[in-house]
Amino acid sequence: MSSQSVVNVIRSQYSLMQGWLEGTLAGVTDELAHFDPPGTVTPIGAQAAHVVTGLDFFLLGVAAGKQPLLMGSFADKSGVSEPPPAGGEWGEWAAHVKIDLPALVAYSRAVFSEIDGYLASISDEDLQAEKEFGPAGNQTILWALNILILNTFSHTGEISAIKGMQGLKGYPQ
Known about the structure:
By secondary structure, this protein is mainly α.
């Protein structure tokens, strides 16, 4: 596999994405993680938990065909008081879920590490394999990887904005 393969580009994007998410979460206190911002935006902790559990379930669970870490080695130490609902509206869950941010960051690092290992094991051709991604139906692994990049960066932006509303620096750079 050449260094310019699609898989290697995606691996690089996921590495950058992890740094951007964790950097944006830096300095978030327990109080700020659970702060309920005005409007329909959900708390920082719920945003971060949604991102990490989505990566775990969709990439490790569906795409890689492994047991999600939340259901295995991180079942009692993910930092998330309860998993988000499967599909559909997660606003009610976001309003009451409790987050232990240091534990969630440890879980996130494990998820990103597992994703990197998975990506290191596949080829560009494997990206075209189709899997059943719940309400989205049959989609390629490449589709899922791209959707989750967009999802992670979108929620990281919301986390940054909520920090900014509190007078804190949002993005790490």
